[in-house]
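Record type: monomer structure entry
Structure origin: computed from sequence
Chain ID: A
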Amino acid sequence: MEKRVTLTEPLIAEWVKYIQDVNNEQENVIKTGREFYIPFMAIPMVIVEKVFAIVESFALGPRTKYLSLYIFEKFVCNQFWEMYIEHEAHPGSHEYQRASDRISEMLMMRLMSSIQLASKMDSHLLGLSVSQVLSALDKLEPNHHFNRSTIIQSEMDVFKTINFKIPLVTPLDCIEVLLAALKLDRVPKVHNAALHILDITYLQHQQLFSQLRLASHGCLAISKEDKINFMAMESDMLFLGAAVIRCTMKIFRAKEAILNDVVRRLEALVKIDRNDIHNFGKMIFVMLDLDNINAT
């Protein structure tokens, strides 16, 4: 939604329903185990930082960041699973180790291919060229040599490994839909602050969700069922989006009555208990270094 299209109420309702369907599908994947997927396993802070920096250096849109992270995460999970199945009988073999080393050596190229695919999906005109990918890799991997044919093949390999599927919505889109539903998209300060806070939740994901898990279960060592439920919650865009908006309103010192009304309306939109939205929003607020939040 890079062009900030004005959404009517029927369109907002359709978007929210679609995001809920996406959430439900992801939850089903996690709970049934029909695909190998562990949220955020492949995108620790160092990877998120690299993606954000590269996207900014090429002046790509903010949505490209989240598409890139999705593609790279999905690629790594799918590739790991393919390798595991191939070497399942001999997981500690020399062949397995060699395959693992090969994947590690190509990781930065795969990351750039993910960003390249995301940039094309987000904007055909701003899509990264092969020359731009090569220039970025010269900085990321100065001791490796890459050529044009390798970059073209890598992009296709990544696209094929994620089964040619790129999502229509990202966490950024989710926040923009919720802001539109609340008519807060008309306030640029709120919109910009919310997206900045979303960035921080990705950069500080491990810290944030470790605290959430501790608050939810009282300890980090939990049952297998609890772990699966928690992974589903980690991938819930609506929950994160609602909490980010709640946090944003608190940063702007919204009166308690207004804050409660916003959360009540978010509860009706995303079908998540208002207390959970309040609590998660408070955690994000506490985590933030407010000196680095430009809410003016």
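Annotation 1: Residues 44-161 form a domain with the Cyclin A; domain 1 fold (CATH 1.10.472.10).
Annotation 2: The chain has two domains: 44-161, 171-292.
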